[in-house]
Specification:
single chain; mainly beta; globular
């Protein structure tokens, strides 16, 4: 295995590119501290991209996550590639950076979600973006096209293995990509284990390479990451 990125070894906030309403900070204990401000309506969010890393075909990402907020959800975006853009970070449309990722044909990516609060909610592993229908527009989660998005994009949905006493504590996560196989662990429990087999109708091709980011919905929130490592398998 080849270590590609280790936050605890470098602790450089400059490694991360911020999009949206928030801050990337160095925590008092050396954590990667992602602060999300109130994002307003329309599912706007704060996204932080690892600037200089292009993922290899086979990789593992691991991190420990703790939140000082009681609610809201976060996600890991991975294998993110521009779609309809020459560069993932150069989009002149003011809303395209912050609206839900499924709304525009801006990118194609995988995502996997996890929550700040502990309410028995599901972690959902998705494939999103690509040749999405134009009528989706800026997708609203209570809008007429959300059910179609949920059905098409969900590759796996499993309840998170937490109880109320786990709120606010650090939890360990890991994701592996080997060929078409995708696996995701929460505190050592294998939650998602599947293959990206072309079922997503708007981008059936397998995803390889691309970039990685954390995306935080809602606000205000202070989230802390340690043990963040990306390894080529």
């Amino acid at each position: 295995m080849n270590l590609l990125y280790d936050w605890d070894a470098a602790r450089r906030t400059s490694d991360w590119k911020l999009e949206g309403h928030g801050e990337v900070l160095l925590g008092a204990g050396g954590e990667l501290h992602l602060r999300t401000f109130h994002c307003g309506p329309g599912r706007r969010a704060t996204t932080v991209w690892l600037r200089d890393l292009i993922l290899p075909k086979h990789f593992r990402v691991e991190w420990v996550f703790r939140s000082a907020a009681a609610d809201g959800n976060t996600m890991l975006i991975f294998n993110a590639r521009p779609h309809g853009l020459s560069d993932l970070f150069e989009d002149p449309r003011p809303d395209a950076r912050y609206c839900d990722l499924a709304s525009y044909g801006k990118i194609v990516a995988h995502t996997v979600g996890f929550h700040r609060g502990v309410y028995g909610r599901p972690s959902v592993l998705r494939k999103i973006g690509g040749h999405v229908p134009l009528e989706w527009g800026q997708l609203a989660w209570d809008g007429p096209h959300n059910a179609a998005f949920e059905k098409a994009s969900t590759l796996s949905s499993r309840p998170e293995p937490f109880c109320s006493e786990d709120r606010g504590k650090p939890h360990a996560f890991a994701l592996e990509r080997e060929g078409a196989a995708l696996r995701f662990w929460v505190n050592g429990t294998l939650l998602h284990d599947l293959r990206d087999d072309g079922a997503y109708p708007y981008y059936r091709e397998p995803l390889e390479g691309g970039r990685i980011a954390f995306r935080n919905f809602g606000g205000y929130a202070d989230d802390f990451y340690t043990g963040l490592r990306v390894t080529a398998l």
